[in-house]
Write a structure and sequence with these properties.
Length: 272
């Protein structure tokens, strides 16, 4: 890393990601509003560290990722830091993106992107690595990399294509389209738009709330089975489904659900 790139990280002051726990839900906030919460190298590394730590946290039921302030969820790569990086620095950075966003994608608990402001480039790629996306009214988002002479390098070409299909992904990426929240929802890039006057974070927390009482082993198995569907033949996919199903069969939670049904009460799932 060049001296100037190191200085940029020091200027950024720490990782730029703050963490908060709300019951069984973790909220990770990209917290450098003066740079539109752009992703520095330190922030990308920290997101990966948080995801790996969260993967072993048995009391966690969901993660919400959002941005500080009301302007930006994340304006993508930190273009100021990027200017101080040479070609080799950037090349070294891409595997870090892949590892960190991959760790988020692989989390056994549902992940929500609460898109409170613009989400461009790596910012939208981060949201695409989450399971669920909700945006505040009026925000803009897009994979804008080709307008900067590059392409999405943190999974955007692959994850967006899996989410919206090849035709739409090409249109959005080749033309560096900047969508508003309503268009993004209509195209399936995001799931929901928050209600008028509701913040993206509140919308995500309300959406995630039922997961606090859900059966964690079943949720993790469902995520793994669905995640594995798109790159398998139907036959392989059905085997994956059977393996994931088997994990739920062996769980105490399944027996608790049957008992609760018989006793006409709500089940108390413990993730065992
Ligand atoms: N990296 C670092 N700093 C960024 C940034 C980024 N990706 N995006 C915005 N900022 C900074 C600006 O440099 C500016 O800082 P300054 O006041 O010190 O100059 C501040 O955030 C506000 O940005 P500005 O462009 O003045 O605000 P705006 O409301 O007119 O536009 C954006 C905001 C996000 C639409 C615009 O900055 C933009 O298009 N950024 C690039 C987004 C992008 O294509 N990202 C993909 C990267 S691969």
């Amino acid at each position: 890393m060049g001296e100037q790139a190191q200085r940029e990280i020091e200027i950024a002051g720490g990782t730029g990601v703050t963490v908060e726990r709300r019951g069984a839900i973790a909220v990770w906030t990209l917290d450098r509003p003066e740079r539109y919460n752009a992703l520095s190298r330190a922030a990308v590394r920290e997101l990966g560290r948080l995801a790996r730590e969260a993967a072993g946290d048995r009391s966690l039921r969901a993660v919400v990722i959002t941005g500080a302030g009301d302007k930006a969820f994340c304006a993508g790569a930190d273009l100021k830091e990027r200017r101080s990086m040479d070609e080799e620095d950037v090349r070294d950075f891409l595997p870090l993106y892949r590892a960190s966003f991959g760790a988020i994608d692989a989390l056994p608990v549902p992940t929500f992107a609460a898109i409170n402001g613009v989400a461009f480039g790596g910012g939208l790629e981060l949201a695409l690595a989450c399971d669920f996306r909700v945006a505040a009214r009026g925000v803009k988002l897009g994979l804008t990399e080709t307008s900067l002479g590059i392409i999405p390098g943190a999974g955007g070409t692959q994850r967006l294509t899996r989410i919206v299909g090849e035709g739409r992904a090409k249109e959005l990426i080749v033309f560096a389209r900047r969508l508003d929240a309503e268009e993004a929802a209509a195209l399936g890039v995001i799931h929901r738009v928050a209600d008028e006057g509701q913040s993206a974070l509140d919308a995500a927390l309300a959406w995630a709330a039922p997961l606090e009482d859900a059966a964690p082993i079943a949720i993790a198995a469902a995520l793994e089975a669905v995640d594995g569907a798109s790159d398998r033949s139907l036959e392989d996919g059905l085997s994956l489904e059977a393996r994931c199903y088997a994990r739920t069969l062996a769980s105490q939670d399944r027996l608790e659900a049957l008992a609760a049904f018989a006793e006409k009460r709500k089940p108390r799932f413990e993730g065992r």
